[in-house]
Amino acid sequence: MNEQDKVGLGSLNELELYRLYESLYRIRRTEEKIADVYPTDKIKSPVHLSIGQEAVSVGVCEALEPGDYVFGTYRGHALYLAKGGDLKKMIAELYGKVTGCAKGKGGSMHLVDVANGVMGTSAVVATTIPNAVGYALGIKQQNRRNIVVSFFGDGAIEEGVFSESINFAVLKNLPIIFVCENNNYAIHSDIARRQSISEITDQVKPYGLPVRKIVDNDIFAIKNYVHSIATQIRQNNMGPVFVECMTYRWLEHVGPGSDFQLGYRSEDEAKKWMETDQLLRLQQYIKDEDRLQIEHAIDEEIEKAFEFAEQSPFPSEDELYTEIFKV
Amino acid sequence: MSREQTFTEAICEATHQLMEEDDSVFVMGLGVDDPKAILGSTKGLLDAFGPDRIFDTPLSEDAMTGVAIGAALAGRRPIHVHIRMDFLMLAMNQLINVAAKNHYMYGGQQYVPIVIRAMIGKSWGQGAQHSQALHSFFAHVPGIKVVMPTTPYDAKGCLVEAVSDDNPVVFIEHRLLHYQKGPVPQKLYRLDQGKARVVVPGSDVTLIGLSYMAIECFRAQKYLESKGVKAEVIDPVWLVPFDLDTIIKSVEKTGHLCVVDNGWTTCGFGAEIISQVIEKLQYKLHIKVHRMGFASVTCPTTTPLEDLFYPNARTIASSVYRLLKPEQSSWIPEEREDLKSVEFKGPF
Ligand SMILES: Cc1ncc(C[n+]2csc(CCOP(=O)(O)OP(=O)(O)O)c2C)c(N)n1
Ligand SMILES: [Mg+2]
Which CATH number is B4-183's, of 3.20.20.80, 3.40.50.970, 3.40.50.2000, 3.30.300.20? Predict the structure, then answer.
């Protein structure tokens, strides 16, 4: 066992370790199954898969409490599941069924599970960042102890609304953690082609909030850091924190396939990330018989979720006109 | 005029020729120089003109629109590309408060020759934030021209016209039109702005389709033939400036007007067309009118609801039939295989 793993494992108990593994495994297998099913065209919705990036959502969400809230992006399957979003409802949503988490009206890019604190995901980059800030403001005004986490990609930093939101969150000392999932690309565009200051944390620091960069997708480091700041925000009224998690998207920007043939990035570059896959990393530390049991149960859960989606009805015609306004 | 091109090829060729002809033309936008080249519509431009004339931008629509405006003030002619019209919502301040205003507000001392290429998504679960068609927003504001061509031929000729114009032009492309093929002359040509196109002549009803809906109207016209109804199908092509004359001429003949907008009907361009026609003809003629467009809801992703959300050839034919023959029992044609994916190509 290397030093990093020793430190990581030392920081949690067996139950916590198992939870991390379960969550990672559930997300990976679910997305693999989505990719499998995709060619059948049953999922008539663009899908932005998180395969390779799951450790960020899982590490962060496992450090939160059930009453905390997350806001995310179109690349939201991992976040939704990591935060406890209902798997059946997610798959049904992708299938456009009335039993979906948004009754089939939202699709893959607009997952939501309010009961579990998944407050929504937007197809328009950076859009949910100020909404998360506002939610944190609301929580603070009501003297609640919960925390909001805003998830976004490295591209979102470039939108004006990101800077405007960070400024306000710091100004009002709001209970929010900003999590930037830096996978180095916005679609096919390398970050170096888009940002003048090469370190995102250097861009954010001047706003006057703690910043932290976690360079290697290390799920233990992510969980531990977020847990420590979440505790401080909860207990000491600490304000916003910015966490940059370096990670890597294995598949194409949108869709189920790989895209190395396009030539904007190399397989060589990806190799390093695939070799440090957090799922495989944790796998070694779970007892074989436990692992098989966990995996078997999750495989079955996923099968059932897809069956549920297949068998659920589409929304009826009158659903088209419901929910334009709250009545 | 036998050479055929897709809509995106026509746009690409027009851009290429414009850049060759005029050094001040350049292309900017998210992904314009990436391997997919905006569905091929900017393919080869990087090789031909280098990274000063075509470049990727940060994800900063607001600032980048302001930058395009600034460059235009300095004598350049930027083409700013957005793969979804929805993203223009982040750029509204610059577009509406600056681009549309400067020429007037500064007493004619400045002008802003920018072209905004904006794409409308449809179907296959694009959903709430990737399917909006907001041409009526732009047409509402004085100082911005709006064009939404349907054929490859018009795409090329109108893009050339838009880039040559000294004002901001929002150039709207429907994603379902991108792969439609049609005849496109190789040479650089310009199509007059503010000219509608009579796609099919007819005498019983004037049927106007905006952008992709022109295609559905073209199909509807074929369905209506089977009922002996002769629809005159018109594609306005330009919303600003708008060719009212062609439409007035048609309605004077038919007395019936149905506008199928590729957008929501409330406060939409369909209402605008109908008002203008009635204002002009009300003392002369008793006109029957009908508006169609997206259902007045957010676009749902699930297919059965999405199918209801959009007008299609059959629902258009059915509505037109009711408009003409309100006393008859309602009719909706059976789907015809041969009309499922019929295209209209010109030549014109
Ligand atoms: C405002 C806006 N501009 C452009 C797009 C098109 N777009 C979709 S995803 C994307 C890249 C975003 O990159 P990043 O924030 O790094 O997230 P990632 O996809 O890498 O997870 C772009 C440019 C969009 N959805 N919204
Ligand atoms: Mg990214």
Answer: 3.40.50.970
